[in-house]
Amino acid sequence: MRDSYDLSEDMKDFLRIMIPKYAKSIYENKNAAKLVESLKISGMTSPVHRGRYIDIHDTSPRSERARQYNMALSNRRAVAMYNFIFDEAEMGNYKYRNRLKKDMGIAALGYQQAEPVRAELVGKEADCIEYNCKKEQATILQFQLYTEKLASF
Prior knowledge:
It contains six helices and five strands; from the N terminus they run H-H-E-E-E-H-H-H-E-H-E. The chain is an alpha+beta fold.
């Protein structure tokens, strides 16, 4: 839903099952846990502001207001997931909860990774039919494994 950062009941149910398994799979094997470089929740938004499609490459002051709004919205999406994952009343005190919390970070991506809106749609009412807004309105939980950098000679 546009401008929303609330988790759906389906997402909450999914997280209640997935997060304890996710934490266990990361930390149960001590050798594998050493390879985890980062854990992050990233919030994203679609290139829509005030119900209209916007050009993600526009650097005008008007576009900057839209960018700031969308960055704040994507941050609220990431924080909402973070808060839910670590809410003991919602999730219980699952194994490795404290370690996961210590290692977890949050990123607000706004529409940094969004597919640009076609030029003929920019400024038009965002019906999200010709442009897939749902694809860009997301919160992503990811972990990155440590990769050894090779020396170049």
